[in-house]
Amino acid sequence: MSVLLRTGVGTLCAAARGVIPCLWRGKCFSSGKELGENSPVTPMLRHLMYKIKSTGPITVAEYMREVLTNPAKGYYVHHDMLGEKGDFITSPEISQIFGELLGIWLISEWMATGKSSTFQLVELGPGRGTLTGDILRVFSQLGSVLKNSDISVHLVEVSQKLSEIQAVTLIEENVPLERNAGSPVYMKGVTKSGLPISWYRDIQDVPKGYSFYLAHEFFDVLPVHKFQKTPQGWREVFIDIDPQASDKLRFVLAPCATPAEAFIWSGETRDHVEVCPDAGVIIQELSQRIARAGGAALIADYGHDGTKTDTFRGFCGHKLHDVLIAPGTADLTADVDFSYLRRMTQGKVASLGPITQQMFLKNMGIDVRLKVLLDNSDEPSTRQQLLQGYDMLMNSKKMGERFNFFALVPHQRLPNGSHQMNARKSNPSPAPVAGFDELAWR
Asked: Within 10 A of 374 (CB to CB), how many other CB atoms are there?
């Protein structure tokens, strides 16, 4: 889910309108499916049409931001979109093994970096809280390993609806939640395993310190600017009211350069690109925190390494949905460009990946874990559920190769880190980073 950032990125849209003349060119891009004859006029569509009539065409980024996180009508603000009754299912909802292996990854990295006495578990966009819940169960099961550690949980979530669901999933029922809607920490509680847990709307409000950051299907919903290369140079894709159907929207190309063009890499060779300034801001924040205080960030998402072009799409009821039809009723997403995330670290930390989910989970020992669970289960329905979940996570035609893992770690974490501190020949070299190499315990 999207994080609200205190940055100047949002001012680009207003600035763009100030320099763009009124000559707009209609342009066709893939938006999911053909427009229906009687597509519904939703409250969000009415809001967007009023906005466009008042100020002119809007960027795709502004469209995504309004549709997903508008405080009054936003898709994420008021919907529980996860699970079988929602619009999509995530890996943690499919199988407990996924979250368990990520919990093992966190402990492996904690051990490899010196077993800090204090660390924070921070999840960006925690969904229903299922992933954090599975990880905390692993922490409890390995309590003897973590017994001297002071652990706290921090969730970054803009949706009040989802934060309430997360609380039901994670907190101890006998300990009342502390609520303060006007505070940067808008909820506090205690998890079922006795750890302090806090909720924030902005990652910048999370306390700095040795932390492990998780972002699963988070970056793909951050707003993107779309650009098309033309004989005149890069031109940004905007969204306007269709002059032939006053209750429908269409894509148009800006007639001249816009401020967001500054985010396009100077060496770009594709003819259509999507750039996400919000993702860049978050990666820079994570990189600075990890470089200064230690820890790591693990990102899992749809994505590519700077190769794809037009990936903007919608999902409703587990099916592709035209992004311009009935805004506010469907999830909007665009594949993460991991090459862009890598550049946004600005060399402050080392990056690993992207590698496929199939390879990451295999390196983490998913086959061994599945065998243990199957051996311990006599219930046919449970065994079938485990096998189906494994297939969904690992099958290359399902999630196995569609999702990628990407990590940020301090330079000194890697064997050839460029910032090794007080390195001596007698010191053992760092263990390989689990998941990106086979899991190894020391």
From this structure: 13
